[in-house]
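Session log. Operator J.P. requested a structure for one protein chain; no other inputs attached. Running the standard single-chain path with C-alpha cell output.
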Amino acid sequence: MGDVEIRQVHYFIAVAEEGNFTRAAQRLAMTQPALSRAVLALERTMGTTLLLRTPKGVTLTAAGHAMLEEGRSLLAQAGNVTSRVRRAAEQHASVTVTGPGCDAALLDGMIRSYNEAGPAHPARMAVGTIDDQLGRLRSGQADLALWRAPLRDHGLNSVVLRHEPVCVLVSARHRLAGRETLKVDDLAGEPLLRWVGPGAQLDDPGLWPDGLPGTPGPQVSDGLQMLAVVRLGQAVALAAQPSDGAGAPEGTVSLRLEDGPAVPLRLVWPKERTTPGIRRFVGHAVTSFRVPVRGAAAQPARSAEADPRFRQTEPSGARRSRLSGADGSSVRSTGPRSG
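Structure written below.
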C-alpha cells in the first residue's frame, strides 16, 4: 500500500459530496477522466473499493463512508498546520485574541490595556460569532478566546476572569419590561429562545441543574435572528450582562435574573500552544480584572505567568483556587469540567 496524497483525498471528498463525477469535476475545475483516474489511484492505494459506480452516479461503500469522515479530518488538520506554520514564521508574531461581536467593547478594552503596558509583541483583536470561537483556536487563527459557560474540551487551558449574572432580554413592549430585575419564577410560561449549534452557552444545561426557565421557544442560530424574535415579542432570551454600558439593543430591555446562575467568563487557549506571549496576556488580564468574589479574603498578588494552571488544565472536579487581582481582590481560576 502506497502513501495517500492530499489532493487525492480532496478529489474523493468532492465526488462523495456531489454523488457524481461530472458535477465533482466541474466543482474542481478539472476534466472528468482525470478525476476518475485520481480516485481509482486512491482506491488502489487503499486496497479497497470506496465508490460504487452506477449510471445515475456514485454511492459510498462502508469503506467509502470511513474514508469520507477521515478525509475531512485530514484536510482540516492540513489546513491547521498551514495556518500555524505561517503564524510561527511571522517575524513579529502578535497574540491574537478572539471574541464574539457582543463582546467587542470588552475585548477592545482588554487589548488596549495590554498594549499600553508595552509588550514586545502587541496583541490584536479578532471578532467572530459565538459559535466559531473554539474553531478559531483549533485552526490557529487565534491564540486566545473569550468563552462563557461550561468548557468540555480537554485540549484547552482556561482561566476564569470573573463570574457574571445572567440577564433576560425581552421586547420593550413585553409585560416584564418595566421591571428592574427578574426571578426564574417570573418566566413561568414564557417561551425561551433556544440557540441551535455550538454557540449555545448561556442555555447550557450544565448551568441549570433544575432545568431552564420558561418553556421551549423558537430556535435561532445567529444574533440578528435572535434580536428580531425578541423585538417581536415571540420569545425572551438569556443574555450576558452588557459590558460596554450601552445597555440593551434598540427595541429590547435587559433585566438581571436575580436567582440565575453565575456564568464564568473565561480566557481559553490550546494546551499545545501555551507560549510566553499567551502567558503574558493571561497574566495581565487576570491582574487587570478587578472584580472581587464575594466573601473572598484578600490575598497577596502572585505572578500569573508562573502559575502551573497556565501550563496544564486542572482535571475534572479539581479544587478551585484563586488568583489575586491588582487591587488585592481575587478571581477564581478553574479548569474545564466534563459534562
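Operator note: The helical segments are 6-18, 21-28, 32-46, 62-89, 104-116, 133-139, 223-231, 276-288.
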